UniProtKB/TrEMBL annotation, chains A, B:
Pfam families for the chain: Pyridox_ox_2 (PF12900)
InterPro entries referenced in this protein's UniProt entry, alphabetically: Pyridox_Oxase-rel (IPR024747), Split_barrel_FMN-bd (IPR012349)
Organism for this UniProt entry: Herbihabitans rhizosphaerae
Superkingdom in the source lineage: Bacteria
Region (Disordered) residue spans: 198-219
Protein name, per record: Nitroimidazol reductase NimA-like FMN-containing flavoprotein (Pyridoxamine 5'-phosphate oxidase superfamily)
Length: 219, 219
């Protein structure tokens, strides 16, 4: 595990809201591990593109995957990527609209990915992504065939260049507004929860929902 | 209201998962209105950057705001932006890891923003953004002072170039996998809900949580 603090480069140095910057790598891991999908940005024909996609983390590596034909993954190893994972925890109501905010945890990773070609490395990346999205599923479901593996591009992005911002807690208002009577201020928390599992209508036979689904940690 | 179908340009034409593309502009509005924060991507020094930020929609315009000093908003009117709003609705468990997926609603908008300078136009944009994040708050809280308004950059992005993808429903497996016994497949829905409002500890006097907070539509 790297013990380097976060924000080692110019572009991963947080400029706005420095008080929200977190420099502990464990915070980076914690945000990445708590998210479900990431937002992947790249440059195409000089313009930015950002799309949601699945991912997973193993140590200092973030894995991404996609169809080998997908725009985002045809870009290859020399393409700069930026990945953001954001968890929204609540809306912050202030006394002035200027100070409305959100409570959130956000991680940004910059870098050029490695495009994995080795079969075992690709399978490892896909296992990490699958276990991130649906823990316990790699060994429950059928693993990729040779053809499926060939259709799937797997990228590995080093977590060396990353930044984390976290906002938590109460509204911060101007002193002259705090004394105003009758204006409510506070936080409206946003909760996430799993609903009841919905079995596929075409299950071969009645199948109990497996424990890796029923006991899945809350999102 | 524009009645042009979505995906009118090359880069806003969906290439992968065309069966998930939605070409009704009402779907675009519905996704943008349901989201809470967006992911804003731009190009800085040739590399992509993606950050979460607040937004709001009024008709065919998406409003974004930030500190006038913020990197993302110092870029100005000639900068290409890409905005993504994604709502994650569930994890799709399939019989094969290749077909694991998520149910989601995702909107992508491309374009060069207008940087608003007119006071009334800026105030309108900020009202739209505030009412999106916290409906009912513009008239409840103190509105921006001249100084606060000067510190705030407001961008207007036309929704002309946009795309929507939606995945809903059951897993889609290979025919040879559907007959497999003992492998569960289905959807684990992801729910969002507001928690109980947490009043700021420094309210000037005990203040009832206002109805625009207590009766806020579910997220």
């Amino acid at each position: 595990m790297t013990t380097e603090p976060l924000s080692p480069t110019d572009r991963s140095t947080i400029r706005r809201g420095k008080n929200r910057a977190v420099t502990d790598r464990r915070a980076l891991y914690s945000v990445l591990d708590a998210g479900l999908v990431c937002h992947l940005a790249f440059v195409a024909d000089g313009a930015p593109v950002v799309l949601p996609t699945g991912y997973g983390r193993d140590g200092e590596t973030l894995y991404l995957h996609g169809s080998t034909g997908a725009l985002s993954l045809r870009l290859g190893a020399e393409t700069e990527l930026c990945v953001n994972v954001t968890l929204l925890d609540g809306v912050v109501y202030a006394r002035s609209v200027f100070h409305f905010s959100v409570n959130y945890r956000s991680a940004v990773v910059h870098g050029k990915p490695k495009v994995l070609t080795d079969r075992d490395a690709k399978l490892h990346g896909l296992r990490v992504i699958t276990e991130h999205l649906a823990p316990g599923s790699w060994d429950h479901a059928r693993q990729p065939s040779k053809v499926e593996l060939a259709k799937t591009a797997v990228l590995a992005l080093d977590l060396g260049e990353a930044a984390v911002k976290i906002r938590d807690g109460d509204p911060v208002d101007e002193p002259e507004d705090v004394t105003t009577e009758g204006v409510w201020a506070g936080v409206l928390p946003l909760r996430r929860a799993w609903g009841a599992p919905v079995p596929a209508p075409d299950l071969a036979s009645p199948t109990d929902v497996p424990s890796h689904v029923t006991t899945r940690e809350k999102p």
